[in-house]
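Ops channel
N.P.: pipeline sanity check, posting one input/output pair.
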């Protein structure tokens, strides 16, 4: 594949992830806990992880985090999203490698959702102390599990349609 085609493809994936992040910021979820999102941009990251490779997905994820922080967030949002993204992507890539893609995309994505929230929790605990946010861990676990399954299902549908 030519360099120009590769750059254009990467730009399209970045744009999609950024647009999904923006759309998600416009939709307030009626949840009693702050900071919970569906993670629509992770749909693009998961598809890229399956269609390309972990390094490609990492570059896309880090660029999206940077763009989101400059556009919608702050230094803290950049730190939280980067910690969550790095841990999530590492766990998903390692799981895919170790299981030779025998686990379903739902399982891999659920792990990604859980570990994304864990990464954010650990990052936040650095600033406010782990004891003060420990109560939030079960809520983040189940929200990560739920959103991970949802994003995994959507990614599976997209990949299946891309292949046909």
């Amino acid at each position: 594949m030519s360099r120009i085609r590769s750059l254009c493809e990467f730009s399209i994936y970045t744009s999609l992830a950024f647009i999904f992040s923006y759309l998600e910021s416009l939709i307030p979820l009626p949840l009693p806990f702050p900071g919970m999102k569906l993670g629509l941009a992770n749909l693009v990251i998961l598809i890229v992880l399956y269609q390309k490779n972990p390094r490609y997905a990492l570059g896309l994820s880090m660029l999206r985090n940077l763009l989101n922080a400059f556009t919608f967030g702050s230094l803290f949002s950049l730190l939280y999203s980067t910690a969550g993204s790095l841990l999530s992507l590492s766990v998903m890539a390692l799981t895919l490698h170790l299981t030779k893609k025998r686990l379903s995309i739902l399982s891999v994505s659920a792990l990604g959702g859980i570990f994304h929230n864990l990464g954010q929790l650990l990052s936040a605990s650095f600033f406010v102390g782990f004891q003060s946010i420990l109560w939030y861990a079960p809520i983040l676990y189940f929200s990560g599990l739920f959103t991970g399954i949802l994003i995994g299902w959507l990614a599976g549908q997209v990949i299946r349609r891309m292949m046909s």
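N.P.: looks fine end to end. The chain is about 80% helix and 0% strand.
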